[in-house]
Amino acid sequence: MNRRKFNNYLSLAAMGSIIGTPIVFGKKLPAGYIPLGLQDPDPFSMFKKDKEMVVLNDKPWNMEAQAHLLDDKITPNKYMFIRNNGKIPTAIDVNSWKLIIDGESVNQKKTYSLNELKSKFKQYTYQLTLECGGNGRSEFNPPAKGNQWTIGAVACANWTGVRLKDVLEDVGIKSDAVYIGYHAADTHLSGDPTKEPISRGVPIAKALQEETLIAFKMNGEAIPLAHGYPLRLVCGGWPASASGKWLTSISVRNKVHDGPKMVGSSYRVPCKPVAPGEKVDDEDMCIIESMPVKSLITYPKTGATIKTGQQLSIRGHAWAGELEVTKMEYSIDFGSTWKKCDLAMASNRLAWQHFKASIRFPEKGYYEVWARATDSQSNSQPMVLPGWNPKGYLNNACHRIAVKVV
Amino acid sequence: MMQNNNFEHSVKQLRKLSVIIFVFFMSIAAVLLYIMVDPTLSAFTPKPDSTDLVVVNDDPNENFDKIEDGIHVRTGFVEGEGLMTVVNNCTNCHSAKLVTQNRMNKEGWKATIKWMQDTQNLWDLGKNEEIIVNYLATHYAPEKKGRRQNLANIEWYELKE
């Protein structure tokens, strides 16, 4: 992109020639030139994101938070990661937006307008943890292909909508239903209108959970465009890719849904543990369901320097997919000893839990504060990378921050 | 004589008048002409600070594939043999960022190309495939990271109580 500072000499010369500046601009604009603001969209203003968010990819848009940005108990839009597989739909008309429920295992196909959904069914609000299956991918060795998420592809916002189970009950589903699959309005990167960028889903048992929503509000407002406006399926605690954005239809399947990124190695890990770098056939890869136990220190930001004798307050969040976090600990000696943090209950099932602790350091020097959560089935976060897998999913290794006592 | 004097006087007056009229109309014409080319009278209004204005290069193709410090500015790819083949084949559908943030060996890049051909409408690359794979495996090769790396790029700051 060619930019040049407009210099005074040129503007004076332009003045002198009695041809007004606007005309000079017009003449100098190359044919087909799109004004800078549109050609090089600023994703931060376009998606109302904080400037400290990190853009991993601009086609499709992928953006993550940093740990300290996720300090809010309920994640606001400006700190919520974006993970897109295709292009964001354009020209969305909420008045004509329809949700179709179809598939092999419905009694009959049924269509709802947005207004029908909102008026016919009771509305619920839940705070739901959505984490990208590939969050933490950047640490795997050998490296795994895809967006190199560090730690910021997780968020826990309030979602308001109707229960998928209520809608499915209204439609009537057959006893052979095993899975649901979503379809959406986003478009394929190649421009091929016959291709879906992504169409994933969940087993029928997850679909029928009380917290599984067809949502139209996030944090009390219309869902932001990048997060699925005007309608999104939200399946908390599972890879966020199961929560289809720009939702247009849900198919109730009599087999495991087979849409794009449901099959092959997408959102799958080896069914049996493998050595780092080992080749795994597609048929030996199993679909990820609940996300593993994990936590983040969101305060202070890494790199804090404190004075000798000064206590350090830390806080953050912990979550465990379908399970509850039952214990939260920190270590300042690289895991030799662990101390307990105060851990709060979740605001509802599938929401992250907040923890805090106050730390005393024995002497001056460099420290790392490591955080470790344990779930209700006694699974703890590993200090090193968990089992390597070809696509780099499910890295729930302990988060740590650097602290210096001076 | 009187008549002659009167006549000369009238001619002088007439000439004076026509000069005045001429100058008057020329002035109006000049003002109108100026307003035509500068309808906002921008020359008389204080000039805005123009240092932040951005203009486009006269030639849109000049520097389009500029390389600075070994980096292809438009895409962020590193300079190397096969660069433009990669730019022309690998940035049509997705951003170059999807490539440059990844690290793979030849086998990995080949498998990625095959996956894109099988599922994402990537075309047959023909002879270019080898050029592309060589470029990527040379400049975007895996680094050994071990099971957990040191914390890096820490920005130290003073934390007040």
Describe the model:
- The complex is a heterodimer of chains A (406) and B (161).
- Helix content of chain A is 11%, strand content 31%.
- Chain A is mostly beta strands and 406 residues long.
- Chain A folds into three domains: 7-40, no CATH class; 77-287, Oxidoreductase, molybdopterin-binding domain (Sulfite Oxidase, Chain A, domain 2, Alpha-Beta Complex), CATH 3.90.420.10; 294-405, Immunoglobulin-like, CATH 2.60.40.650.
- Chain A has a five-stranded mixed sheet. In chain A, strands 7, 8, 11, 12 and 13 form a five-stranded antiparallel sheet that branches.
- The longest helix of chain A has 9 residues, at 8-16.
- Chain A is globular, with a radius of gyration of 24 Å.
- The two termini of chain A are 46 Å apart.
- Residues 1-39 of chain A have low confidence and may be disordered.
- Chain B has 161 residues and is mainly alpha-helical.
- Chain B folds into two domains: 2-44; 67-139, Orthogonal Bundle (Cytochrome Bc1 Complex, Chain D, domain 2).
- Chain B is built from five helices and four strands; from the N terminus they run αβββααααβ.
- Chain B has a two-stranded antiparallel sheet.
- In chain B, a hairpin with a 2-residue loop joins strand 2 and strand 3.
- The longest helix of chain B has 36 residues, at 2-37.
- The radius of gyration of chain B is 36 Å and the shape is elongated.
- The model of chain B is unreliable at 46-58 (pLDDT under 50).
- Chains A and B meet through strand 1, helix 1, helix 2, strand 2 and strand 18 of A and strand 1, helix 4 and strand 4 of B.
